[in-house]
Amino acid sequence: QVQLVESGGGLVQAGGSLRLSCAASGRTFSTLVMGWFRQGTGKEREFVAAIGWSGSSTDYANSVKGRFTISRDNAKNTVSLQMDSLKPEDTAVYYCAARLRSALARSSEDYPYWGQGTQVSVSS
Fold first, then answer.
1. CA angle, corner 110, sides to 43 and 100, nearest 5?
2. Phi, psi of 52 (to 5 degrees)
3. For the residues of the chain, what is the DSSP string, one character each?
4. Which of 62, 72, 104, 117 could make a disulfide contact with 79, Cβ separation 3.0–4.6 Å?
5. The pLDDT of residue 1
6. What is the rounded distance in angstroms from the CA atom of residue 24 to the CA atom of residue 46?
7. 4: closest CA among 112, 86, 119?
């Protein structure tokens, strides 16, 4: 079993930055592929970014590429999402997710472990 706890959400003006963190426990963190997803009001949950075991492999949704950066610290069992140049359309609840397989994945169905989510609101 894997437990995930997100932090770092909040309210920011358009063009600003936020950094989300996710703390993992319950399993050797370095064996987990980690992902970030988001869900806006009335919208389906969508993929944001993913990172492989060592941190050398990453994947981003086109909508955030060049603005968001995913990273991990295996010594601290944490994964982070640095969000820059935020836009109002980035407003959503952001979820941290984990999977035990080695390959990165974009489908929420490929991630069995989820955090409770953290709200990010971007004002125009």
1. 140
2. -80, 180
3. --EEEEE--EEEETT--EEEEEEEESS-GGG-EEEEEEE-TTS--EEEEEE-SSSS-EEE-TTTTTTEEEEEETTTTEEEEEE-S--GGG-EEEEEEEESSSS----GGG--EE---EEEEEE-
4. 72
5. 87
6. 21
7. 112
